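can u do me a favor
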């Protein structure tokens, strides 16, 4: 399995609700730089948080890579989701080449859990950071971080 975990690009500081914050122009540029690392990769599915900034990030990546399958919006990629829940969802879906677009603190905690098997050492993930993980199965401690690209 190959798994890419992308934090959304830079977003506005304020909105009526956190879930409504939109990407800034700089955030859009960051996402395009991160998307360049995905060119030629065998992505089969793109899952994204329902929050506006994650949807915009996923849309930019989807368009830049000319992906055929539509973006799949899921409720289990919001900022406060338990990383174990994400792993359970990935296990149940049994997809091989997955891109997740989400938020901190989830993305850092998820990368740390998949790599180390615990939540004690989350990975630093700036806006539009892209982590690349590989392994046989999406279980805690069983994936290896191959790279982390910072936009």
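np, heres the sequence
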């Amino acid at each position: 399995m190959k798994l890419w975990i992308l934090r959304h690009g830079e977003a506005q500081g304020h909105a009526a609700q956190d879930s409504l914050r939109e990407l800034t122009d700089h955030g859009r540029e960051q996402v395009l730089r991160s998307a360049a690392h995905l060119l030629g990769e065998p992505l089969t599915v793109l899952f994204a948080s329902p929050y506006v900034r994650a949807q915009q990030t996923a849309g930019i990546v989807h368009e830049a890579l000319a992906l055929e399958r539509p973006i799949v919006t899921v409720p289990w990629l919001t900022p406060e989701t338990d990383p174990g829940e994400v792993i359970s969802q990935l296990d149940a879906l049994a997809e091989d080449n997955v891109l997740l677009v989400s938020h901190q603190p989830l993305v850092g905690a998820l990368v740390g859990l998949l790599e180390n098997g615990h939540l004690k050492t989350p990975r630093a993930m700036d806006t539009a950071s892209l982590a690349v993980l590989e392994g046989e199965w999406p279980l805690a401690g069983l994936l290896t971080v191959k790279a982390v690209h910072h936009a």
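The chain has a mean pLDDT of 96. hope that helps!!
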